Amino acid sequence: MKQLLTLLCLCSILASCKTETKEQSNQTETISEVKQELTIAEKIAKAHGYDHWNAIGRIDFTFNVDRGENHFERKWIWEPKKNQVAFSTGGDSIVVFNRNKIDSTTIELDQKFINDKYWLLVPFQLIWDKGTTISNPVKGLAPISKKELHKIVLTYGNEGGYTPGDAYDIFYDDDFIIREWVFREGNRKEPSMATTFENYQDFNGLKIAKDHKMTDGNFNLYFSNVKVQ
User: pTM score, two decimals?
Assistant: First the structure.
């Protein structure tokens, strides 16, 4: 009888230990899942091919704006690993500078590059840029298509960068692909500009929207000669 009681107690202890170990295991898995949960910014960046970014050594692109009968363009070659930029407006004139060594002779050109590169790689800027806040996602009516999409608000701090304090209302679909956005200068309530994100193409794993159009159809900001290596 004494041996039977001892055996029952031992089984009870083993069962208790097994249950505790299982609970601890479940807690560990839960913690692991929490750690692996991506932010909205990360989900949007990954949907646009951010997993391929570390393999990219050079990006060539031409930034174009057509407004009515007027056309404007800037040609860029960017080597992100070196942080080196080459600029051309056409012809044989090329200016090369390194973004680690910006001075009074290159700061204006760097401002233009930052603007053009921002339009090209908005999804990645969500995780690259510091000093920003990103709102929780909500459902919102896209300004141009009038479709109900997911919406986040990206707001820049009042210090640092070339245009501090600006805000962007970003509209994306269920696949985390950006479809439209609203730019609000200085975080004003009224929109400064609203455009589409369309004509997506894949460049060495990066999903880039080549066209950004306004409602009236008299404006198109677009990219040509895009090469990603």
Answer: 0.83
